[in-house]
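User: Hi! I have a protein structure encoded as tokens and I'd like to know what sequence might fold into it. I'm fairly new to this, so please keep things simple.
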């Protein structure tokens, strides 16, 4: 049997929930460092707080992948996890910028870090089944397009989330002024709007997407899969470790590409706000609460929106077609090189407006990072193991972030003398290393067109 070929709009609706997930994730990425600094965190401590994000992914995604592989009921296989994750993430979004209301119980910084943990765990509960759903529902010849459409929705959601605080202030006159220890109103309102959009977009996917039953999926075993799945064994959670040991060769090769890609991304997310504030705006390293610092933080939201918008356009209109012409591996390598050059070039930009140009280049890399590795990987995995292996693959997304979280802060403090711009240069170099490693990867069902 062969899976039904889905239309563009069926694939679009199937991934639409990612728009809300990424809107919330973008609000967190662009503003969590700023919020934590408002609540009292020093710049060299930021990466330690951010370790929560990859740690939650390391723990949550393989477990969710394992159980979603084994789940089937009236609500489907992956869809129950979408809804639970969205509800919990919305709670974290609403409460993180308002952590100071709990100051009579705990310091605001602790509460803010706790809400960051809830958000990250919940985003991971929702995200992993979305990756697996694309692998479940799409044929081999649609996988690149499916992950590219998913990436475009990620980009559109991230644009909205990243730009929302700036837009609320610029066009709706919502105040971005603050006093020490308090988050500006434009940020608080942005997080509340993000929570509402997250729930709404998840519901679109829930009501428009049909999942294949386990019986149907058993008839779609991919003959190119590198994973053998015993049909009679009773599954247990400890099988995650066995599956890890038996991971496909393609996954092992991609793991190094992912390590350096996500090491670089984590450094960018954590240190862009202080880097732009101090290197581009010329503010003192000790300034975390002035009006100029808030303006710099809002502008970082716009910059993050730029790279996400570019990624959405690249993924939707160009990535699948380029991959067909030159192959997924070459597409990914070139994209990472472009992104690495972009990050390094931020150091040389004369003012904040010019930083838009490097972020356009970063957007090219981001589009490929979110699509190409998963499209390459999906062809090497048996359908029955799609969820757990997508979860295990997340190890190679979160481990580099944990490493960066542990060493990034001390490096900025002691090696870079507190100047976060050098952390962005380090991220750019990391992208370039990832690009070189792409060529060692075996793509078992590459869709490159033969002449």
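Assistant: Happy to help. Inverse folding works backwards from shape to sequence: for each of the 451 positions I chose a residue that suits the local structure. Here it is:
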């Amino acid at each position: 049997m062969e899976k039904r070929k889905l239309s563009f709009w069926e694939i679009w609706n199937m991934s639409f929930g990612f728009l809300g997930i990424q809107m919330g994730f973008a609000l967190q990425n662009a503003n969590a460092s700023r919020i934590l600094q408002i609540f009292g965190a020093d710049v060299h401590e930021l990466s330690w707080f951010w370790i929560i994000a990859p740690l939650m992914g390391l723990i949550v995604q393989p477990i969710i992948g394992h159980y979603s592989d084994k789940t089937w009921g009236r609500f489907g296989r992956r869809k129950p996890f979408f809804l639970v994750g969205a509800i919990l993430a919305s709670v974290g979004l609403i409460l993180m910028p308002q952590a100071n209301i709990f100051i009579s119980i705990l310091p605001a910084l602790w509460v803010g870090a706790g809400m960051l943990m809830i958000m990250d765990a919940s985003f991971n509960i929702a995200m992993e089944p979305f990756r697996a759903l694309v692998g479940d529902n799409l044929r081999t010849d649609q996988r690149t397009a499916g992950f590219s459409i998913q990436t475009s929705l990620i980009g559109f959601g991230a644009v909205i989330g990243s730009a929302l605080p700036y837009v609320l202030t610029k066009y709706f006159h919502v105040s971005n002024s603050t006093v020490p220890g308090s988050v500006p109103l434009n940020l608080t309102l942005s997080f509340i709007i993000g929570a509402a959009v997250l729930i709404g977009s998840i519901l679109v996917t829930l009501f428009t997407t049909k999942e294949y039953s386990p019986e149907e999926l058993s008839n779609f075993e991919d003959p190119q899969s590198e994973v053998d799945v015993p049909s009679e064994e009773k599954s247990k959670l400890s099988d995650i470790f066995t599956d890890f040991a038996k991971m496909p060769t393609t996954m092992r090769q991609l793991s190094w590409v992912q390590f350096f890609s996500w090491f670089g991304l984590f450094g960018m997310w954590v240190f862009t706000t202080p880097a732009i504030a101090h290197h581009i705006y010329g503010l003192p390293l000790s300034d975390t609460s002035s009006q100029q610092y808030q303006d710099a933080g809002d502008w970082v939201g716009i910059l993050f929106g730029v790279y996400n918008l570019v990624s959405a356009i690249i993924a939707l209109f160009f990535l699948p077609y380029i991959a067909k012409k030159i192959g997924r591996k070459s597409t990914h390598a070139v994209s990472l090189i472009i992104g690495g050059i972009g990050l390094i070039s931020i150091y040389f930009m004369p003012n904040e407006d010019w930083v838009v140009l490097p972020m356009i280049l970063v957007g090219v890399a981001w589009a490929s990072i979110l699509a190409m590795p998963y499209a390459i990987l999906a062809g090497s995995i048996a359908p029955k193991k799609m969820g757990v292996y997508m979860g295990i693959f997340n190890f190679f997304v979160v481990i580099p972030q944990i490493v960066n979280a542990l060493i990034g802060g001390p490096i900025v403090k002691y090696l870079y003398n507190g100047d976060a711009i050098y952390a962005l240069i380090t991220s750019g170099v990391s992208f370039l290393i990832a690009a070189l490693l792409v060529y060692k990867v075996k793509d078992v069902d590459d869709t490159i067109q033969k002449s």
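A useful reference point when you look it over: Residues 121 and 444 are 32 Å apart (CA to CA). Feel free to ask if any position seems puzzling.
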